[in-house]
Request: fold
Amino acid sequence: MLEMMLSALIVVGALFTFIGSLGLARLGDFYTRLHGPTKATTLGVGALLIASVLYFSTRGEGLSLHEILVTLFLFITAPVSAHLLAKAALHLRVRSIAPPPPEAEDPLADTRVRAGD
Reply:
């Protein structure tokens, strides 16, 4: 039973990692390429690390904490790094293939006091 669960986690992890890597290589612009390593690859590496925790915890001496620490570090740093990369790209005005959103009308435009009034 354990071998089947480990095999399933390894296959799922490998599929997510492959899909994330493929997205990084094939998607059109910088912003869409951020989704590959931050979403799918995080899930893939997480599944592989869970499989490793299960394997070494049942084969070794007690609970394997190395993989749990790596998993926590991965789940904390991946979204933060993606956010900082996207923020830097916005600051540098990196072009996107998506059209910008339409400008919304300001509901307070008529009620503001002008400087000359």
About this structure: Residues 65-91 form the longest helix (27 residues).
